[in-house]
Amino acid sequence: MLKFIDDHTFHPRRVVGLNNIRLEEYPVAALREALLNAVAHRNYDDASRKVFVRIFRDRIEIASPGYPLKPLTLAKLRRGGYRPCSRNPLIAQALATLDKMEQRGSGFARMRDAMLDHGLNEAKIDQQDGFFVVTLPGPDGNYDRIKAPTTAAGSITPAVEARLNERQKRIILHVQEDGFVTNKWVQETLNVVRDTAYRDIQELVDLKVLEKTASGRSTRYILVRDHA
Asked: Most buried residue, 41, 86, 208, 226, by most Cβ within 10 Å?
């Protein structure tokens, strides 16, 4: 299901330092938490109803059969600090044993934190027509509000970046914009001789930042991560 959502949501790219990072429209941690809760806590006695995932322009809704099990209420779930109460304790325990779910009773708090850390509004919970509904508000086209994760790492780590000269940094930025670089472009744009251009590029190849495609006059260099 996460792949389905990934295939049907937008993934803007952003340059962070020397890395061109693929961002997620919705935080995977929040999506995973909502899906796992839907599977673990749905009403399996109502076999005629399934868990629904609906993707809209401005939100994702995940609906599972059954309202919160008493004494839980929407107000308690929204407020937090409630005692965990599972409709399907064996399923919940199995998911926890497999490290698919964390501490019981803290899922909505983690979901909220994941949404806020991503730059989005926190998830909303509701109940309607026999379904418990979790709504994850999206950026609604304003992708600038999405925050790049602090753990985001491309091919160019800080340790690698520290070894690069200014010409090599410009080469990488050019590849990110145009998709490739040539020895000729380095010579003409950076005003260096052929051997210097080759050395700069080859060092990037040795650092596994760039890789060579084709040969001879058709030789181009692209980012390694494009083929990861």
From this structure: 41
- Tally of domains in the chain: 2
Confidence (pTM): 0.70
Are residues 186 and 80 both part of a single domain?
no
- Residue ranges making up the domain that contains 55: 2-145
Q: Do 183 and 221 fall within a single domain? A: yes
* Amino acid, res. 54: R
Whether the CB-CB separation of 33 and 111 falls below 8 Å is answered with yes
pLDDT at 25 over 90: yes
Same domain, 80 and 163: no
How far lies 94's CA from each of 45, 51, 97, in Å? 19, 19, 5
Q: Residue 56: which of 106, 12, 10, 122 has the closest Cα?
A: 10
Question: How far apart are alpha carbons 70 and 75 in whole angstroms?
Answer: 12
DSSP per-residue letters across 11-28:
--EEEETTEEEE--SS-H
pLDDT, greater one: 55 or 18: 55
* pLDDT tens-digit readout, 122-132: 999 999 999 99
Q: Are residues 50 and 130 in the same domain?
A: yes
Give me the pLDDT at residue 106, please.
Answer: 67
Q: Count CB-CB contacts under 10 A for residue 49.
A: 16
125: left (phi over 0), alpha (psi -120 to 50) or beta: beta
Give pLDDT tens digits for 60-85. 999 999 988 888 888 888 887 777 77
